[in-house]
Amino acid sequence: MRAWIIQNGEKNGPFDIAHVVRKLQSGEWDGGTYGWVEGMREWQPLSTIPEFAQAASLNQINEASLDTKQDIATLETVQPITVQASKQEVTAMLIRRFFARWFDLLLWSSLYMCAMHLSGADLKQMMMNFWFNYLMMIVWIMVESAMIHVWGATPGKWLLGLRVSRADGEALPVGLSLLRSIRVYLMGMGMSHPILLPLCHGFSWWFVRKHGSALWDGASGIRVSIRSISPWRWLAFSFAAFMVMNVSGMILESVSRELFRELFPEQAQWLDSSQPKTPDK
Fold it and tell me: Mean pLDDT score of the chain, rounded to an integer?
């Protein structure tokens, strides 16, 4: 059985079936080339002729594989430039994320403790309780995950131009947002343990510098985007932190003094000397 093909508008042949198959396998001809085999009524693409369908299919797979390899090679060529450019922003992002994280914790702990104090709770005894801090952080995890799910940011992240989202830019689902907050508390904050906290901070800083994303973000397909902010935004952030510390300090002053006296009785005289003396009558 012999075959003919059309190349450049001209009929060529006859060819053995095996010869056409070899041409297809080598990539010299493709499945879109029209051909005719003895016994056929009309010309058809080689990919639709039973004798050549398999070879044409393999040829298409090889072409797709070649294109993929070329794309990968292109990406590998471009990758060092992209990584180099992104590393210039890593330090800035780390600094912003650090301050945003601690601003949020300062704001939340101040609101939480002030609310407890104003409600009449014995805040001094609660602060001495080991589980009080963990309860406060459990509530914060739920609050933070809700804000990330709805707005993609917390107050600190919003002030410093940070946004948390999926890789496609969409908001995090509720479950993924909650899982992220839990991982941050465990791996990034060390559960607020005085020894684990600086260790986790240092490791997280190193990990982001090396891999470009945090442990709790990259593996889950979460992206933290950063946008430029003006100096006025930094000023607003500093003023907000200053106001939170001063307002909460005024509300919790009496409790803080009592707690300081119990924890550091030898230094309690500093508090007494700092208070203004009442004039003698």
Answer: 78
